[in-house]
Write a structure and sequence with these properties.
Oligomer: single chain
Strand content: 15-25%
Domain Cytochrome c: 364-446
Shape: globular
InterPro entries: Cyt_c-like_dom (IPR009056), Decahaem_cyt-c_OmcA/MtrC (IPR020014), Mtrc-MtrF-like_dom_II/IV (IPR054337), Multihaem_cyt_sf (IPR036280), Multiheme_Cytochr_ET (IPR051829)
Number of strands: 33
Largest sheet: 12 strands, mixed
Protein name: OmcA/MtrC family decaheme c-type cytochrome
Keywords: Heme, Iron, Metal-binding, Signal
Signal peptide: 1-20
C-alpha cells in the first residue's frame, strides 16, 4: 500500500478547509506562535585567492623582507626559530604577500664592548664565525633543511616553511643536532644584535632573475628587551657612500641603499658589509694571511687609499687595492665619516695602519722608533693636540684656509685702448698692507699665477682673452688694491661686449696656522684665491663697465644687456654634485690651477678654445698592464663638457691612475653608475623646474651649437658629448651620429655658424622612447 507523507497530506486538508470555510462574513483565526529559530551553520574556511598574493616581482625595490626582534632567537640556549614576512608590489601598486620563497640566507652579528687593550672600543662579532660555521658566512634556510654553498658544498640549513593560511609569512627552525649556528649560546642578551635577511631565486613575470640583491632592511635591537637600538660604531652613513657610489632607486629616504659597489655584486648598505667584514672573520685562518686586514674599518681605509699606498702594498692587497683612487683628499676624514666623531676619538693600531701601511708599531719603524705597549697608550699622544687625528690630518684645511686671500673685483674700465681692472685684496682677514707682493705667496710660481680675463659670446659661452700674470702688477697699493692694465689691440673693441674677471691664483697655505704664508716659509697645501667671478657689460659709448652680478656661476649664461635680468643659469652640470664626491674642486687641478668653480675652469675649457686637446688619443690597459692607443679614436677639443665626460668614462687616461679602462674592458675608479647622468647633472634649474638636456627645439638647453677644434674646424656639440662616453661603439656610433646631421673632425667646417643642428633630440630628448632618461 502506498504511504503518503502525513505532513504534506495534513497541509493539503488544512488548505482545502480553509478555502471552503472563509466566506464574506467570516473572520480569520488567531495567528499561531512563531517556531524556535534553527541553529546557525558553521562558517566555511575562506579559500586562498590568487589575487591576494604574488609570486613574481619586477624590481628589487618592490620586494620587502620584514623581521621583528620578537620573532627570532639569536642568543642564549633556547632553540633557534624565526619568523618573517615577504611582500611585493602587485598590480596597481598594491602591497601583497609574496608566496613561494624556497631559499633565504640569515646574517646575525653582535656588537659588544671591547674589554681588552687592543682594537676599537666596540667590536662586531659574526655569530656564524664565532660558532665556526663559516659556510659563506651566513646560514641558509631552505625547504629541505640543506643547502649548497657557492663553493658547491652541501651544508646543514634551517628548514623554511610558508604558512599556508597566511601566504607570505614564513618560519624557520633548526632540525639538526645542536642549536643553529646563528645563535650565540654565550652571547650577552644586552648586547646590540644586527640581523639581515637575503632572499634567493626571485624572478619577474618573464621568469628573469632580479638583478639586484633582495635584502631586508637590517634591524638593530637588544635581545633582552626586544627594543630597537642604535649602533655605537656606525661612523659612516650610507648617505656618505652614496655621494660617490650613487643611490639605488626605489627605496625610501629612511632606507637609503648604495647602488654601485662592485665587490660581491653590491651589498647595498654599510650595515650589511660588517656582517662579514668584522674581527671574527679577519681572525679566520682563511683570511688572516691575506696581507691586509679584512675587518671593515681597516679594509675600507686601505681600499680608498689604494693609489697612494701602491708602493707599500704587497700580494693580494696590491692587486685588489693598489690602483684604486679616492676622488677627494685623503686627509679629509669627514668626507666619509659623517656620523659622529669616533674617527677622531678612537685611536688604535688597526685603524691607523690601514692607511699608514709603512708604519710598524712592533718595531717602531716610521713611528719615531716608538713601540707602544698597547692600543691603550695611543691616546696619550694622539688623543688631543697637534697629533690627534683631526689636527695631524689637517681635516678641513681647505675650508679653514678658504678666506686666506680674498679678491674683490672693484671695477673694469676702458680708456684710450687700455683695460684697467682694479681688485681689492684681503690677506688673512685684513686689508693687505701696501707693498705686499702677492707673487711672494704663490704655492707654485710656475703655475696658477694669473687673473683670468675674457669675454662671453652671443650665447654666453666663454671666449678666452689675455689673462694677466705680470708680476709687477700684483703689488698691493696704498688703497689695499692691485691694479691690472692691459693694452688692447687696435682691432679689439669691448663695445657691446660682456667681460669676465676671475682668478687662478693658488696661494701657499699653512694648515697648522690656518694662514696664507710666504712661499719661502714653506706650506703644506695650495689654496685658491677666494674670488667671485664678475661680469661687466660695456655699452656702445660707455667707457666704464657695469657690474652685473657677484655670484653668477655658469658657463653658458644668456648675455643680458641690463644687470637686472641676470640669473638664468642654463648649465646642466651641477657644481654641488661635483663637490659631493670630490669634497671640493680646488684639489682637482691643484697646484697647477687655483680654481674652485666652473666659471674659472671655463676660461680654458670652453667650446670656443682654439688650442685643442692635449690628450688627443685614447689609451686603455693591455693584458700586460701597459697602456696602448686605440687606433682611430681621437679628440681634438678641450671644452669642459667633453673633458669631463672623457675623464669620467676612462677615455682620457694614459696610465692606471684616475679613471681608466682596464684590460677586461671594465671602467675603473668611477664610483657612480655609468648610466646615471644625474650623478653630475642638475635635477632642476634655479626655478625648481626640470632641467632637460634639450630645450624643445632640438638644440641643447645650454644653447651651445658648435665646438671649436685646435685646427680651426668646428664640430657638433651633442655628438661630441655622446661619443666621449660611447667611444666603445667606434665606427658604428660615428655612422649613426653622421646620419643624424653631426659634423665631426675632418668635415672641414671652418665657421661656427655653418655647423647644422643635429637631429639627436628627435629620438633622444627626454620623454621619447629612446630618450636619454630612458636608455640611461
Amino acid at each position: 500500500m502506498k504511504k503518503y507523507n502525513k505532513t504534506l497530506l495534513a497541509a493539503a486538508f488544512i488548505a482545502a478547509f480553509g478555502l471552503a470555510g472563509c466566506g464574506s462574513d467570516g473572520s480569520d483565526g488567531a495567528d499561531g506562535v512563531d517556531g524556535v529559530n534553527g541553529v546557525d551553520g558553521v562558517d566555511g574556511t575562506d579559500g586562498t585567492s590568487a589575487s591576494l598574493s604574488v609570486t613574481t616581482v619586477e624590481d628589487a625595490s618592490q620586494f620587502t623582507l620584514t623581521i621583528a626582534p620578537a620573532d627570532i632567537v639569536v642568543v642564549g640556549t633556547d632553540d633557534f626559530s624565526f619568523k618573517f614576512t615577504a611582500t611585493a608590489e602587485g598590480t596597481g601598486g598594491a602591497t601583497l604577500p609574496f608566496s613561494g620563497l624556497e631559499k633565504v640566507q640569515l646574517y646575525v652579528t653582535s656588537q659588544s664592548e671591547n674589554t681588552t687593550d687592543t682594537g676599537a672600543p666596540y667590536l662586531w662579532t659574526s655569530h656564524l664565525y664565532a660558532n665556526d660555521f663559516v659556510s659563506d658566512n651566513a646560514m641558509y634556510c631552505t625547504l629541505t633543511g640543506t643547502a649548497t654553498t657557492r663553493a658547491g658544498v652541501e651544508v646543514e640549513a634551517c628548514t623554511l616553511v610558508e604558512d599556508t593560511e597566511n601566504p607570505g609569512t614564513y618560519t624557520g627552525t633548526w632540525e639538526h643536532d645542536g642549536n643553529a649556528p646563528s645563535v650565540l649560546t654565550d652571547g650577552d642578551a644586552n648586547d646590540l644584535v644586527r640581523v639581515m635577511l637575503r632572499a634567493y631565486n626571485v624572478v619577474n613575470a618573464d621568469g628573469t632573475s632580479i638583478s639586484d640583491k633582495l635584502l631586508s632592511t637590517p634591524i638593530d635591537f637588544i635581545p633582552a628587551t626586544g627594543e630597537l637600538a642604535v649602533s655605537e660604531k656606525d661612523s659612516v652613513s650610507n648617505a656618505a657612500c652614496i655621494k660617490c657610489h650613487s643611490s639605488l632607486d626605489g627605496y625610501a629616504d629612511t632606507d637609503m641603499r648604495i647602488s654601485n659597489i662592485s665587490a660581491h655584486h653590491n651589498y647595498q648598505k654599510v650595515e650589511n658589509c660588517v656582517a662579514c667584514h668584522n674581527p671574527a672573520m679577519a681572525a679566520d685562518e682563511d683570511y688572516s694571511d691575506l696581507g691586509y686586514n679584512i675587518s671593515f674599518n681597516a679594509m675600507i681605509h686601505t681600499i680608498h687609499m689604494g693609489d697612494e699606498l701602491a708602493d707599500s702594498l704587497t700580494g693580494d692587497a696590491l692587486e685588489l687595492f693598489g690602483e684604486i683612487a679616492f676622488p677627494a683628499e685623503h686627509n679629509e676624514c669627514t668626507v666619509c665619516h659623517d656620523n659622529g666623531t669616533q674617527w677622531n676619538d678612537n685611536v688604535y693600531e688597526e685603524a691607523c695602519v690601514s692607511c699608514h701601511v709603512d708604519v710598524n708599531l712592533a718595531t717602531g719603524d716610521n713611528h719615531n722608533g716608538i713601540v707602544p705597549a698597547s692600543d691603550a697608550v695611543c691616546s696619550g699622544c694622539h688623543g688631543a693636540g697637534s697629533l690627534s687625528p683631526m689636527e695631524a690630518h689637517s681635516v678641513n684645511r681647505r675650508a679653514d684656509l678658504a678666506d686666506g686671500l680674498v679678491l674683490d673685483v672693484v671695477s673694469a674700465d676702458v680708456s684710450a685702448g687700455v683695460l684697467t681692472v682694479t681688485i681689492g685684496v684681503e690677506l688673512n682677514g685684513e686689508t693687505a698692507a701696501s707693498g705686499t707682493d702677492l707673487f711672494d705667496y704663490l704655492f707654485n710660481a710656475s703655475y696658477a699665477k694669473a687673473i683670468l680675463i675674457g669675454t662671453l659670446d652671443d650665447n654666453g659661452d666663454y671666449v678666452q682673452g689675455s689673462s694677466i700674470s705680470d708680476e709687477t702688477m700684483f703689488v698691493v697699493n696704498d688703497a689695499g688694491q692691485i691694479v691690472l692694465t692691459q693694452t688692447l689691440e687696435e682691432t679689439t673693441s669691448l663695445d657691446g661686449q660682456t667681460l669676465y674677471v676671475s682668478s687662478e691664483l693658488s696661494m701657499c697655505g699653512d694648515a697648522e696656522t690656518d694662514m696664507i704664508v710666504a712661499t719661502d716659509e714653506g706650506c703644506d697645501v695650495g689654496i685658491p684665491a677666494n674670488i667671485a667671478t664678475k661680469y661687466f657689460v660695456f655699452g656702445d659709448t660707455a667707457a666704464t663697465g657695469v657690474e652685473t652680478t657677484d655670484n653668477m656661476r655658469f658657463i653658458n649664461a644668456t648675455v643680458y644687456t641690463a644687470p637686472t635680468q641676470v640669473g638664468n643659469d642654463r648649465t646642466t652640470a651641477d657644481e654641488a654634485k661635483c663637490n659631493a664626491c670630490h669634497d671640493n674642486l680646488a684639489h682637482i687641478k691643484s697646484p697647477r690651477h687655483g680654481v674652485t668653480n666652473f666659471t674659472q675652469c671655463a676660461d680654458c675649457h670652453n667650446n670656443a678654445s682654439p688650442v685643442g686637446s692635449h690628450h688627443e688619443t685614447v689609451q686603455i690597459e693591455s693584458a700586460d698592464g701597459t697602456f696602448t692607443v686605440v687606433e682611430g679614436l681621437e679628440y681634438y677639443n678641450r671644452d669642459l663638457v667633453t673633458v669631463a665626460h672623457r675623464y669620467h668614462s676612462g677615455t682620457y687616461a694614459e696610465e692606471a691612475s684616475g679613471v681608466y679602462i682596464n684590460a677586461d674592458g671594465d671602467l675603473v675608479n668611477y664610483p657612480a653608475d655609468q648610466t646615471n647622468c644625474q650623478a653630475c647633472h642638475k635635477d632642476a634649474n634655479a626655478d625648481g623646474d626640470a632641467m632637460p638636456f634639450f630645450d624643445g627645439t632640438g638644440t641643447l638647453t645650454s644653447g651651445k651649437t658648435s665646438v671649436a677644434l685646435g685646427n680651426g674646424e668646428f664640430i657638433s656639440p651633442v655628438t661630441e658629448a655622446c661619443r666621449s662616453c660611447h667611444a666603445h661603439s667606434g665606427d658604428a656610433a660615428l655612422a649613426h651620429f653622421k646620419s643624424n646631421g653631426a659634423t665631426v673632425f675632418g668635415d672641414n667646417i671652418t665657421s661656427a655658424d655653418a655647423v647644422p643642428v643635429e637631429s639627436c633630440a628627435t629620438c633622444h630628448a627626454e620623454g621619447k622612447t629612446y630618450g636619454i632618461d630612458s636608455v640611461h
